[in-house]
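re: the backbone from monday

yeah here it is again, tokenized this time
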């Protein structure tokens, strides 16, 4: 999952995109450290050959703004938890002047993917219809994220960034740009345990297995317009 971008307030707790001890689930909020780094994207052919590398922010921006989609332009930043989605999403949102909807507001340790119908109803449907999205966030005082808390409004904008695990799944429909952030599994687990504590290893490992199963069945990465290494 990932962090709140433009238009969103920082939240104090997590689940695996942010987890354990009142934290959020994996993938949430990998903060940028030190000086700004140049990110590059790799677009690959069917054979996996790298065709070209360009600045990732400009590539995503051009793809989103030039996309032939009706109404709002939705940019999805997806990938496994701990891959670096939140950091990239914050940069993309700043570049495009766009609000961000973090999937961390929907997922919980016990629900990697089943929250989607509520996301469709409260976020996707209104934005695609030209209306503000008004959705109920997970209760951040409940570290497992099993209950719901307050409501948040994301004002309609020409471009909106969606950030978090499975946000570019096949059911998402016509997104302006689908971005996949990938980082080696060991590094993702290291990041998660560094943030949430070694005592949450079993939760992280179970979550990662469930992510793997969903992404494989959904072929999420194969649909990506841009593939970004999250190790920078």
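seq for it, each position gets an aa:
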């Amino acid at each position: 999952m990932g962090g709140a971008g433009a238009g969103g307030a920082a939240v104090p707790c997590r689940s695996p995109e942010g987890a354990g001890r009142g934290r959020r689930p994996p993938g949430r909020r990998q903060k940028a450290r030190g000086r700004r780094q140049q990110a590059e994207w790799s677009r690959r052919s069917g054979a996996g050959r790298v065709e070209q590398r360009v600045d990732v922010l400009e590539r995503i921006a051009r793809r989103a703004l030039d996309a032939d989609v009706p109404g709002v332009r939705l940019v999805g930043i997806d990938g496994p938890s701990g891959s670096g989605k939140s950091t990239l999403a914050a940069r993309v949102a700043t570049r495009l002047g766009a609000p961000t909807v973090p999937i961390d507001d929907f997922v919980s340790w016990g629900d990697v993917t089943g929250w989607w119908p509520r996301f469709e109803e409260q976020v996707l449907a209104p934005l695609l219809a030209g209306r503000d999205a008004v959705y109920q966030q997970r209760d951040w005082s409940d570290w497992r994220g099993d209950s719901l808390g307050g409501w948040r409004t994301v004002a309609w904008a020409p471009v909106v960034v969606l950030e978090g695990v499975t946000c570019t799944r096949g059911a998402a429909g016509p997104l302006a740009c689908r971005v996949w952030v990938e980082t080696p599994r060991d590094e993702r687990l290291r990041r998660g345990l560094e943030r949430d504590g070694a005592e949450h290893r079993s939760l992280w490992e179970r979550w990662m297995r469930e992510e793997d199963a969903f992404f494989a069945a959904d072929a999420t990465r194969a649909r990506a317009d841009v593939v970004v290494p999250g190790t920078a």
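Helices lie at 56-66, 85-96, 116-128, 185-196, 201-218. The chain has five helices and nine strands.
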